[in-house]
Specification:
Layout (H helix, E strand, L loop, with lengths): L1 H33 L5 H8 L5 H10 L6 H13 L13 H36 L4 H15 L2 H15 L18 H38 L2 H8 L4 H38 L5 H10 L3 H29 L1 H8 L1
Length: 331
């Protein structure tokens, strides 16, 4: 009974913390966006080909822009509490609908880049740690340093130039070929071909970071006492590295992945803009240009919620990787 009560109390504290964090995110984002320069009414009027002061006043009244800042804030908080993220000024659709329409494309890109970064970066780090002073380790260090120094937008533009004019073997824009009208497996392969360049662009910086982190973590793990004991028992090097050292070396990598998911989600804004990928990043870019505050606020709120959920998943992965964490939490 005591264990169950403690579990419920811990869950209640987490829920309170999540609600408080989301409330702070909503309020801060709302105030920052509202104080930014620009008038959404004039942007909407400009899209209509120009508007008189009377029409601008009607637009402000229609969208509640003529109210005071506290009134707008409390009205927005009430809508968010009921699951309503507002209505887009520019797209004339509910913000929730816009987000759900664009979310699959962004999640596909981010998850693919994350898997690529973890597998390639982690694998490079493990191989480099086997012989820290070897040629492979030095090569990984040089490549990771160069990749980490390259900005995401620069990498994307270089790949765009390379594969659009010099070596046109991969598509450089969009998610599918609209003229082909593929279906089934052909459609999936078409999406996969369009994913290659934006995925590599988004993942390459994190590949560099994860390879260096995994190399350092594996070197520490391979010199630990439990690894020496495993080798003394006569276990094969594959078992020593894969079962004993790797499992403990993964903990810093999991921590970094959980912390950087939000950064990768934000990096998708630049990547999707460069490659015209139809996801949330592109929607953020369009919303900023057109002062579409409800859409921008909705995406920021949803991104914060997604990052919080990823952190909870990271905590669960901790427990699966290292039983000591599970035992310590239970105690």
């Amino acid at each position: 009974m005591k264990g169950g009560a403690a579990l419920w109390a811990r869950a209640a504290r987490q829920i309170v913390n999540i609600v408080g964090l989301l409330l702070a995110v909503v309020v801060l984002n709302f105030l920052l966006i509202q104080t930014a320069p620009g008038d959404p009414a004039q942007v909407i009027g400009g899209e209509m080909g120009g508007a008189s002061p009377e029409v601008l006043a009607q637009i402000r009244a229609q969208y509640g822009l003529d109210r005071s800042l506290p009134e707008q804030l409390f009205t927005y908080l009430g809508k968010v509490a009921h699951g309503d993220l507002g209505y887009s000024f520019y797209f004339n659709q509910p913000v929730t609908t816009l987000i759900l329409d664009r979310l699959p494309a962004t999640m596909l890109l981010v998850v693919a880049a994350l898997v690529l970064a973890v597998v390639v970066g982690g694998g490079m780090g493990v191989l480099a740690a086997r012989k820290p002073d070897g040629a492979l380790s030095r090569f990984v260090s040089v490549v990771s340093t160069a990749a980490h120094a390259a900005p995401v937008f620069w990498t994307g533009l270089m790949l765009l130039v390379l594969f659009s004019s010099m070596w046109p073997i991969l598509p450089v824009a969009g998610m599918v070929d609209p003229a082909a009208q593929y279906s089934g497996l052909d459609h999936a392969l078409d999406v996969a071909r369009h994913m290659v360049l934006p995925t590599v662009t988004l993942a390459i910086v994190y590949i560099a970071q994860y390879s260096r982190l995994m190399r350092a973590s594996m070197i520490d793990a391979l010199h630990a006492d439990y690894v020496r004991t495993a080798r003394a028992k006569g276990l094969s090097e594959r078992v020593v590295v894969g079962k004993h050292a790797l499992r403990n070396a993964l903990i810093p990598l999991v921590t970094m992945v959980g912390m950087q998911f939000g950064q990768m989600f934000a990096g998708a804004v630049l990547v999707e803009t460069v490659f015209s990928w139809p996801g949330l990043g592109r929607l953020v870019f369009d919303s900023i240009l057109r002062r579409d505050y409800p859409t921008l606020l909705g995406i920021l709120f949803f991104s914060a919620l997604l990052v919080i959920l990823v952190n909870l998943v990271t905590d669960l992965v901790y427990r699966l990787i290292d039983p000591r964490i599970r035992t310590g939490r239970a105690a």
